[in-house]
Amino acid sequence: MDGDYLEFGVFNGRSFAAAYDAFSRAYRQVIERYGFLMSEDVKGWINERWSAMRFWGFDSFEGLPSVKGVDTGGPFKQGDYACSLESVESNLRRSGVDLDRVRLVKGWYDEVLDDAALARFEGRKASVIHVDCDLYESAKTVLDFCTPLIMDGTVVIFDDWFQFRGHPDKGEQRAFREWLISNPHLSATEYHKEGVWRNSFILNERAAAQPA
Ligand SMILES: C[S@@+](CC[C@H](N)C(=O)[O-])C[C@H]1O[C@@H](n2cnc3c(N)ncnc32)[C@H](O)[C@@H]1O
Are 186 and 150 in contact (CB under 8 A)? Predict the structure, then answer.
């Protein structure tokens, strides 16, 4: 699908590198396996999409911010998952990620996720948004930032959906519920549940009401 990969909560780059690898293999395999059934135009179209895809990683690179409000008393504390930007770049390079296609944005979400950050997308949309920032406050800021980047079919993955003992009024679950209420033009269809904590959704534009 057209669009970029966005990860909010990069830590040491492990899941970021895995996502890059998964996309790279998916695009390559579709041509290797089914290329003989495709015209050169279709192969060109697929290659163009892969070449245009950018991989965005947003993190303080200083670990979690202070934990407050609804997230207090949970498993997370300030400074967890600190890893410097330089170490992440080195990890990604060693994992075979093409850094020319990577945009790592350093800073606290409530300071860096602004119109200037949005302008850097130059009209491109998000195919996959990976929210792995653990906390309600962080996820809320992230989702608000992402609203203009959503397209019909964007997949949003919540790495910590079932944290806080699965409590719906905490963490990423709460942030997503509130965000959907603020964006009634979007619907969310539950997609893959994976491992202990993860859940994901496909976002769609709601169809316009049909005249009676
Ligand atoms: C669980 S770690 C990410 C793990 C990573 N995706 C992986 O699987 O390897 C959570 C990350 O979210 C980042 N984070 C959380 N809230 C943030 C905020 N408000 N601003 C910037 N970074 C934040 C932390 O710095 C931390 O690196």
Answer: yes
Q: What is the DSSP string of 8-73?
A: E--TTSHHHHHHHHHHHHHHHHHHHHHGGGS-HHHHHHHHHHHHH--EEEEE-SS------GGGTT
Residue 78 lies in a domain: yes
Q: Does any domain span residue 193?
A: yes
**Model pTM above 0.90:** yes
Please check whether residue 211 lies inside any domain of the structure.
no
Q: Whose CA is nearest to atom 27 of ligand 1?
A: 11
Ligand 1 pocket: which of 6, 16, 59 to mutate (most atoms within 8 A of CB): 59
Q: What is the CATH number of the domain that holds 50?
A: 3.40.50.150
**pLDDT tens profile 100-156:** 999 999 999 999 999 999 999 999 999 999 999 999 999 999 999 999 999 999 999
Q: What whole-number distance in Å separates Cα of residue 69 and Cα of residue 72?
A: 6
Domain count, the chain: 1
The answer to whether 64 and 15 have CB atoms below 8 angstroms apart is no
Would 56 be classed as within a structural domain?
yes
- Pocket of ligand 1, candidates 20, 58, 60, 84: which has the most ligand atoms within 8 Å of its Cβ, to mutate? 60
Look up the domain containing 159 and give its range: 4-205
